[in-house]
Amino acid sequence: MLKNSRFLGLVVFVFLFAMCNQKSKNESDKETILKGTLDITVDETVKPIVEDQVAVFEGTYYDAKISITPKSEAEVINDLLNKKAKVVVTTRNLTKEEISRFEKSKIVPRVTPFAKDAIALISNKSNNDTLIALKTVIDFIQGKSDTGIKGLVFDNPNSSTVRYMKELAKVKDLPEQGVFSFKTNDEVIKFVSENDGMIGVVGVNWLSQPSPNMVDIVKKINVLSVKGLNDTKYYSPTQNDLAEVKYPLARDLFIINCQGYTGLGMGFGSFIAGDIGQRIVLKSGLLPVRTPGRQLQIRKEILKDNE
After folding, report:
1. What is the mean pLDDT of residues 270-285?
2. Both 157 and 245 in a single domain?
3. Which one, of 184, 235, 209, 211, lies nearest residue 71 by Cα?
4. Domain assignment present for 260
5. Are residues 246 and 219 in the same domain?
6. Are residue 193 and residue 90 in the same domain, yes or no?
7. Domain count, the chain
8. What is the pLDDT of residues 138-180, one digit of tens each?
9. Helical H runs in the chain?
10. What single DSSP character describes residue 293?
11. Number of helices and strands (H, E) in the chain?
12. Same-domain check for residues 258 and 111
């Protein structure tokens, strides 16, 4: 009997020891703002800038691993609302109706704007005219004839660029004729580079930071300067024209965090909105929300190297 009691006690001790070790292991593996794993669903039109941010973030915080899943805007928002994604990057803020859905689950979305982006209109290099009036594009979307546009090319029927242009033209649907769509911005750029008379609609980040296999293809297209509805001059999707609020097809970028706790999503959101993240935005060709500061060291004397 005593022998059995000792054996039972030994089993209980081993079990408790294992549980304590497992508890310690779980606590050490707990997600924090700078540690853990995270999947971010990203609007495909702004994938390059998010890839840059993730690369630097992971290179700075080695215990953080972030994976990127690019999707159309409609899919990104749906995944967020259906709790398939907890952290997303979009080109628009949440609507009041969307926010109320999270409030019912007692989750307050953390929405952080971090950059000003632009929708670029591109044409084949053989087209010598690099100017286009926004009204011409809107007339085409509204189904009017004699616009001079052979066709508009989008990345995806459910993309943010399609939604943006439909809202601008105040139409529910795009014309059935003369509108083409693919799956990615790279496919749009390639198609326009091979077809004269087509106008491509892409996120400007795909042009300012092309992938290695797209560098030569980007050289075969023109980025068009656009005249706004109430403008007399044409402006380009450059940092300067974005900063001066002159380019008519500008939009904001947001990271939306619905984790509901202090996790890696909060840390990454703070990073891209902070000094380093804003410098990455500046380098990418987009416009940061905050201009990164510069530290100047002023010397009273000029120091000479020792001979």
Report:
1. 95
2. yes
3. 184
4. yes
5. yes
6. no
7. 2
8. 999 999 878 889 999 999 999 999 999 999 999 999 998 899 9
9. 2-28, 47-60, 73-81, 96-104, 134-141, 160-169, 185-194, 205-208, 215-218, 239-243, 264-273, 275-284
10. P
11. 12, 13
12. yes
Express each pLDDT in 73-92 by its tens digit. Answer: 999 999 999 999 999 999 99
Place of tokens 């979009």: 90
For residue 111, is it within any domain?
yes
Q: 81 near 101, Cβ under 8 Å?
A: yes
Last-in-domain residue among 251, 277, 300? 251
According to the model, what pLDDT value does residue 127 have? 87
Model pLDDT, residue 25: 42
- Please report which helix (H) or strand (E) contains residue 71, including its range: strand 64-71
Domain match, 56 and 100 both: yes
Task: Mark whether 76 and 166 lie in a shared domain.
Answer: no
pLDDT for position 107: 85
- pLDDT at position 298, please? 53
Whole-Å CA distances, 104 to 83, 222, 231 = 13, 48, 44
Residue 95 and residue 219 share a domain: no
Range of the domain at 194: 118-251
Q: Identify whether residues 52 and 109 lie together within a single domain.
A: yes
Q: What is the CATH number of the domain that holds 89?
A: 3.40.190.10
Q: How confident is the model at residue 128 (pLDDT cuts 50, 70, 90)?
A: confident
Q: Is residue 57 part of a domain?
A: yes
Instruction: Give the global pTM.
Output: 0.82
In degrees, rounded to 5, the angle at the alpha carbon of residue 173 between the alpha carbons of residues 170 and 178 is 110
Identify residue 102 by its one-letter amino acid code: F
pLDDT mean over 233-245: 96
What type of residue sits at position 150? K
| Contacts (Cβ under 8 Å, ≥6 apart) of 288 | 114, 115, 116, 278, 279, 281, 282
| pLDDT attached to residue 7 | 45
Residue 258 lies in a domain: yes
Residues 73 and 154 sit within 8 Å (Cβ to Cβ): no
In the structure encoding, which two tokens stand for residue 196, read together?
Answer: 């004269």
Q: Which residues on adjacent β-strands are paired with residue 244?
A: none
* Residue that has been written with the tokens 């926004």 in this structure: 134
